[in-house]
C-alpha cells in the first residue's frame, strides 16, 4: 500500500521504520527535517512539503503532536488540495471534539477520516505490538484493519469517530495518575528507610501492582530520565485534554488538577523533554 506518514517524532519514526520493513511504499514528512535523517538513510522517501508526501499515497497517517499541529500541516493552503479522495488516519492523542472537528474539515475537502490512537511506544511500534483503538465506521474498520495490524497486535473498533479518542485519554490519565502515585510511595519508603526491594516484593504480589512500576523503577532509582519514550511535556498536554473532557462531562477533577500542577512544576525545572517519570524530581527532590 502507498502510505504517507506525517510526523516523525519518537513514535512516528518507529512506525515509519515498521511500515518500511513490512514492505509498504512509504513517503514521510516532518516539519523539522533533522528528525527525518535516519529514515532517509533507511531508504524511505522524505519530502519537505506535506502535499508531496500525500500526492502518491492511498492513505495518510497522522502522527503529529496535537490538533494544532494537525491543522497547521493538513489544512495549509498548499496541502488541503491533496486531501480529496484520500483516507486520513489520525493516530496521535487529541480530544474527541478535536477529532470530530478535523473529520468534518477533511470531509469538506473531499477526504475520508478515521481515528486510530495507540497505546505503546517505540519498542512496541518496532515490534508491531501497539494496542490500537479505532474510531470509524465498520466499513472503514474492515478496509484498514490489515494495515493497522501491521503496526498493532491488538486492533479494536471502539465506535464512531471520537470514541477511540476518549478511550485513549482515559488510558493516558491512568499513566499520569499511576506514575504520580508510584513516585510518592517510592519516595515515602526511601525517606523512611524501608528497603526498596521489600516494598517492591510486597507490591508485586498485590492487586495494586502495575508493570509500569518495574519499568520505571530504574529511572527513578538512578534519577535518569534521558532517552524518553514519552516526554513530560507530552504527558502534560494529554492531562490538559483529559481535564477538558472531564469538565465537559461534569466529572470531579481535583485529583488530576494536582497532577497537572506536579507536571507543570517538573517542566519548570527544565525537564519537559525527558521521560515523564521525571515527575519524581518534583515529588521527591534529591537532597543536597
Layout of secondary structure:
Blueprint (H helix, E strand, L loop, with lengths): L1 E5 L3 H12 L3 E5 L7 H5 L3 E3 L2 H5 L4 E4 L4 H8 L2 H4 L6 E4 L5 H13 L3 E4 L2 E2 L2 H6 L2 E6 L2 H14 E8 L3 H29 L4 H9 L6 H12 L9 H17 L5 H15 L11 H4 L5
Parallel strand pairs: 1-2, 1-4, 2-3, 4-5, 5-6, 8-9
Antiparallel strand pairs: 7-8
Please provide a written account of the structure.
- This protein is an alpha/beta fold and 288 residues long.
- It has two domains: 2-159, NAD(P)-binding Rossmann-like Domain (Rossmann fold); 166-283, Orthogonal Bundle (N-(1-d-carboxylethyl)-l-norvaline Dehydrogenase, domain 2).
- It has helices at residues 10-21, 37-41, 50-54, 67-74, 77-80, 96-108, 122-127, 138-151, 163-191, 196-204, 211-222, 232-248, 254-268, 280-283; strands at 2-6, 25-29, 45-47, 59-62, 87-90, 112-115, 118-119, 130-135, 152-159.
- The strands form two sheets. Strands 3-2-1-4-5-6 form a six-stranded parallel β-sheet, with helices on both faces. Strands 7-8-9 form a three-stranded mixed β-sheet.
- Strand 1 (2-6), helix 1 and strand 2 (25-29) form a beta-alpha-beta unit.
- The longest helix is centred in the middle third of the chain and has 29 residues, at 163-191.
- The radius of gyration is 20 Å and the shape is globular.
- The protein starts with a strand and ends in a 5-residue tail after the last helix.
- The model has no long low-confidence stretch (mean pLDDT 96).
